[in-house]
Amino acid sequence: MDNGLLCSQAVKNLTPILEAEATAPGAAGALQYLHTMSKDMLEKPSTWIIGGDGWAYDIGFGGLDHVLASGEDVNILVLDTEMYSNTGGQRSKSTPLGAVVKFAAGGKNRSKKDLAMLAMETYGQDVYVASVCLEANYGQVMKAFAEAEAHKGVSLLVAYAPCVMQGISEGMGCSMNDARAAVDAGYWPLYRYTPMTDLPSTTDEEGFVHLQQHGKLTLDSKKLKGNLEDFLKKENRFNILTRKNAQVAGELHHHLQDDIDTRQAKLKKMADDSK
Asked: Cα dist. 28→38, 40, 108, 192 in Å?
């Protein structure tokens, strides 16, 4: 019951047998109940914890960290709007450099907390991690969800989530264009991290099992194709500071670009070391 794909296939194979047995004269009540009410009992239970960045990065991080360290077969999906969207757009630890939000009227002057990288570096032995964006790469999202579900342990998916509070200049109806621009500029990287426990291990002469020294990182956004300023101009949370104080905005955007370049280089190295 710990393999979802095998369970689903088994249900398909068992369904006609259950139908025949449950409708036969004198069929046991349990068979009839299973056939009519509870076929889902044969499926592998899939447990998901879903929340926003205010919870995952800030007020609920202690609980999140406890789950990451638990080793339980549970999946976590973080919908990252980069602010407290449901309570008026306040700053969170996910808010990026230069963004103007409540409690950061002059533009946030500290780098964003990198939750996915933190999980990889702290719990990389047995936690699956992915950074995804549905609007930018649907196929990569589907791969990440399938891999997370197949992983026997904790999985963390951090998803870029366009939000009305970001002030997308073209409107939420064009949020797909905004999300693609974020990925193209490297503002939001796409990758999937397979932990050491899911990779082939070796056994020494004394029978001890040795895991690989590193997990495997697949960088799905290898090449940056866009310009950061072109993306920032699409959102009022960045534009408002440019209008108020162009010099400060330019400095913060420059530091943001440095952070992006440093992260991209690190991800490339991790991907190369995984080969």
From this structure: 15, 19, 66, 47
Q: Classify residue 235 as exposed, middle or buried by CB count within 10 Å of its CB (0-12, 13-18, 19+).
A: buried
Question: Pick from 5, 166, 3: which is nearest to 83 by CA?
Answer: 166
- How would residue 18 be classed by pLDDT, with cut points 50, 70 and 90? low
Q: Kindly state the helix (H) or strand (E) to which residue 192 belongs, with its residue range.
A: strand 191-194
Residue 28 CB contacts under 8 Å (≥ 6 apart), including other chains? none
Q: Which residue has the tokens 């879903």?
A: 50
**How many angstroms separate the most distant Cα atoms in the chain?**
83
In the structure encoding, which two tokens stand for residue 220, read together? Answer: 């799905």
pTM, 2 dp: 0.86
Kindly list the distances between the CA atom of residue 146 and the CA atoms of 5, 128, 149, 183, 215, in Å, as whole numbers in the listed order.
10, 11, 5, 21, 18
| Gap between the Cα atoms of 191 and 216, Å rounded | 10
pLDDT of residue 245: 95
